[in-house]
Specification:
Length: 326
């Protein structure tokens, strides 16, 4: 019996109880909570903060019902219900010699439904983090793309822009919609350009354009351009914590006095032994107008010349997109 005057649970309800328990118990064990009496108010408050991540597993997704506005609330409610079920069993636990939860869970709240509504309102649009097995190879691929591939792509784009400067421009991707002379010049660029070997493998990272791109080498160039832009964005966000809306606040250009991207400055650390690269940019989230905020791009020992990956990515982005701004 659930206790506190609530009706007995039906056999059909046990399926949802087991799902909520299956999500909550691993989290409790991971946080070294092994007995009901250890579920104190600070532990429950921590649970509320982390419950979107707990609920976002494949098992919970399978039991969330139809694609509608209430979909994110399902697994959250199942977990919260189990906490309340455990509280209602406190007298039964005492009878068998087990110390129950020390206090009512979340006494200032109306119950699991109202809490679930609040959490899912905060959680809607929330994207679960990638697993390490996915995130680490993704970041490594993005970082490696900033080296030799980035140099090749920028060189190729520069050669195309030179042809467009001489014969007029056409949006990248519209191969076949250009005059004969420009077509000849571009085909010459595509035929003669050779991608560079990667130092770590001694292998060319991309085949000749006319051999790998079929009938539309310009579309392949466009895809390479977008891949490099994506690698830059992943590198910046992955090493600094910038969100998409904050990435959009980056300003173009280079400071003529420092030679650094606009908004970036170098400060000495408190020990004077390191240089810290600080980005000053806007944070639009939570306000009508972007607020000025600082992000640390990275640091290096005093006297070193290597720049943080995020700064390298900002430089690549600026030079890559400059022709489209001018």
């Amino acid at each position: 019996a659930p206790g506190d005057g609530y009706k007995r649970l039906t056999p059909g309800t046990m399926a949802s109880v087991s799902i909520g328990m299956g999500k909550l118990v691993p989290w409790l064990v991971a946080n070294h909570i092994l007995w009901p009496h250890q579920m104190t108010q600070p532990v429950l408050d921590q649970l509320l903060e982390e419950i979107p991540l707990i609920a976002a597993s494949d098992l919970a997704q399978e039991h969330m019902g139809d694609e509608d506005d209430d979909r994110p609330r399902g697994p959250v409610l199942l977990i919260l219900n189990f906490v309340y079920y455990l509280w209602r069993q406190r007298k039964a636990l005492l009878k068998v010699g087990l110390a129950p939860m020390p206090s009512q869970p979340w006494p200032d709240e109306e119950g699991p439904n109202s809490i679930a509504v609040k959490i899912t309102g905060r959680e809607r649009g929330w994207t679960p983090p990638l697993a390490d097995e996915v995130a680490i190879p993704l970041l490594n691929s993005a970082f490696s793309f900033l080296a030799t591939p980035a140099d090749d792509i920028r060189t190729l784009i520069g050669m195309i822009h030179e042809v467009e400067r001489r014969f007029g421009s056409t949006p990248i991707g519209r191969w076949g919609h250009i005059d004969n002379k420009r077509s000849e010049e571009l085909r010459k660029v595509f035929g003669e350009f050779r991608f560079t070997e990667l130092p770590e493998t001694s292998l060319v990272w991309h085949g000749p354009l006319l051999e790998t791109s079929g009938k539309n080498p310009m579309l392949e160039v466009r895809n390479l351009l977008l891949d490099l832009i994506a690698a830059c964005c992943i590198s910046i966000c992955g090493t600094t914590g910038l969100r998409g809306s904050e990435l959009e606040q980056l300003r173009a250009g280079v400071d003529p006095q420092t030679g650094l991207p606009t908004g970036v400055d170098i400060k000495q650390s408190s020990t004077g032994m390191n240089e810290e690269f600080i980005l000053v940019s806007g944070m639009p989230k939570g306000s009508a107008h972007p607020r000025s905020m600082e992000w640390t791009l990275g640091s290096r020992r005093l006297g070193d010349v290597e720049e943080p990956l995020a700064l390298q990515a900002m430089r690549v982005l600026d030079t890559l997109l400059k022709p489209y701004r001018d």
